Structures are given as C-alpha cells and as structure tokens.
C-alpha cells in the first residue's frame, strides 16, 4: 500500500512519566476537537480495514442482547449504518479508522460485550469477549496492584456528558497495524538496529451511552518511525531520561526490556555521542500503512 503524508504531532501527547509506578490511568477530559478523528491516513486505514475484514473472521463480535447498544453507538457516532445488531456493527466499523469496544455492567463488574478490533495490538476480541475489565488486563504485569481498583471506579463513575481520553505507547519492531498475537521482541545490538523501530501508540477514548449504559472504548492506532522522535530534541531527551531511569518492569511494558533500551538510548542521544565510534547514519525509512 502506498504511503500518504503522515503527520506525527501526536508524538507530543505521549505520556513519558518516570517513576516507580509504571502503570497509570492517565485519563483526561476531552476539551476540544472531535470524538473520532479523520486525518490524512484515514482513507488508507479504511482500505486496509476492508481488506483485513475480507481475510479474517471474528474481528467484529457481539454478545446476545446488545443490539440496542449498537443502535445507540451508531447514533452517537453520527454515521449511517445498515441493519441491526452484528450487521449494523459491521456497517459502522467500516466508517471510521478507530477500533470500538463495548463494555457493559452486569451489576458487579464491567465486561466486554462486543465491538470490532481490526488493528489489534497483540490481542484479539475473540479471546476477550465476555471477560471483565480485570480479566482482560490479566496479562499486564502490575495491573492488579496499580490500576484495577482505579479503573473499575473510573468506569462506575463515568458520566454521560464528558468524553475522556488516554494514550499508551510502545517500541515495536513491526509497523504493521494488524498484530493479533503476542510477538517476541528482536534483540537490539546498537543504534542502527534501534533506528528500524517504530513507536506504536493508541489514542483511546471512553464515553458512556445514556440509554443502554454501555461504555464505549475507542482505540485509534498510530505508528511513527522512531526517527520522528529523534527529530524532536525535547521529546528525544525526555525519552532518554525515561529509559535511563525506568525499572525492568516499566521497560517491559514499553517493549524496551532485555537491553533493548540501551540501543534506543544510543539512537536517540545527540549525534556527537551516538556516532562517536565511526558508525554510519542509518537510513531514514518511513514505513507506509500496512498490515
Ligand atoms: C480506564 C480504562 C483503562 C485503563 C486505565 C487501561 C489500562 C491499560 C494498561 C496500563 C495497559 C498496559 C498497556 C498500556 O500501557 O496501555 C492496558 C492494556 C490492555 N488493555 Fe486496557 N485500560 C483501560 C481500558 C480498557 C478497556 C475498556 C479494554 C477493553 C477491551 C482494554 C483492553 C486492554 C487490552 C486487551 C490490553 C492488552 C492486554 C494484553 O496484553 O493481552 N483496556 N490497559
């Protein structure tokens, strides 16, 4: 697929927070701007979505009894969508780049009742359907101790008038949008290896639908070649100081563990330090949107 001009202003929103508590809520009220985003990559992303939906089953799922929530979602999105239930979900999915997950409360906990996940970051909706927020996050080291109670309380208290957002980020070897399974990270030996990485980030929003009380969790996937970070000196400096002080657990959460952080620090550090041993400048490579 050919690449469109991508802007990477979102890199300025990355939460790069040093400190021992490596998992944070990081939710903020959306003050301005639209709920769902249309940008220069959206058309390409929608094309990729169409291809992936044709090639893979079970990227869109809905538990029984939630058709009304889908209608309410479609109204909130302000899009035209045909049919009802799963058919309507499929139709709505094809109108936006975001992934959308629907969370409902059974009186004691919030669980995943449906949605679509076409650009998964190493998980699948099939694996998590029906699971509670706590179980969904079971593979996340530290979630139970640091976030579970806070996230559950946030869900309980979320009102219908405000939309909230948060962001995550990771150093990935592969810039592909479609990553349904856990991947093992490549060892990085030096700055040249690190120059091939991408930063994958999800802009996530949360809002509650007033009629069905379903909470809509949206995920907009964004990918930038790491060179974009190096070209923002303030950002690169914050990242270097984060990587220097982070615990191994925090590094693992960012896919920068097992010594990978050292190569990344080397790559993001100022030029005179980075190439002092006669290394050559790595090729600048901007990946296109891909699977
Ligand atoms: C306030 C809401 C939420 C918070 C604070 C939160 C927090 C987190 C954190 C800290 C991680 C670790 C990776 C990262 O740094 O992002 C994570 C991963 C994840 N979150 Fe959430 N999350 C929230 C809502 C949700 C919802 C509604 C879903 C619904 C499906 C979800 C699904 C996942 C999945 C699937 C992973 C990856 C799990 C894996 O590795 O298998 N999260 N979340």
3D structure, described in words:
The protein has helices at 42-55, 67-77, 85-93, 125-128, 133-136, 143-146, 148-157, 191-194, 227-230, 233-245, 248-253, 260-268, 271-274; strands at residues 28-29, 60-62, 99-105, 110-116, 164-172, 198-208, 215-225. Residues 276-287 have low confidence and may be disordered. The chain is globular. The protein has a seven-stranded antiparallel sheet with strand order 1-5-6-7-3-4-2. The protein has one domain (35-269). The termini are close together. The protein is of the alpha+beta class and 291 residues long. α2 packs parallel to α3 and α10 packs antiparallel against α12. Bound molecules: protoporphyrin IX containing FE. Protoporphyrin IX containing FE is lined by residues 23, 25, 27, 101, 103, 112, 123, 128, 136-137, 139-140, 147, 151, 154, 168, 217, 253.
Topology, pairings included?
Blueprint: E1 28-29, H1 42-55, E2 60-62, H2 67-77, H3 85-93, E3 99-105, E4 110-116, H4 125-128, H5 133-136, H6 143-146, H7 148-157, E5 164-172, H8 191-194, E6 198-208, E7 215-225, H9 227-230, H10 233-245, H11 248-253, H12 260-268, H13 271-274
Helix pairs in contact: 2-3, 10-12
Bound molecules: protoporphyrin IX containing FE.
Number of helices: 13
- Order of helices and strands, N to C? EHEHHEEHHHHEHEEHHHHH
Instruction: Describe the main β-sheet briefly.
Output: 7 strands, antiparallel
Q: In one word, what is the shape?
A: globular
Small molecules (ligands, ions, cofactors) in the structure: protoporphyrin IX containing FE
Cα-to-Cα separation, first versus last residue: 9 Å
> What percentage of amino acids are in beta strands?
15-25%
Q: Compute the number of structural domains.
A: 1
Topology, number of strands: 7
The average pLDDT is 92
Uncertain segments: 276-287
Q: What is the share of helical residues?
A: 25-40%
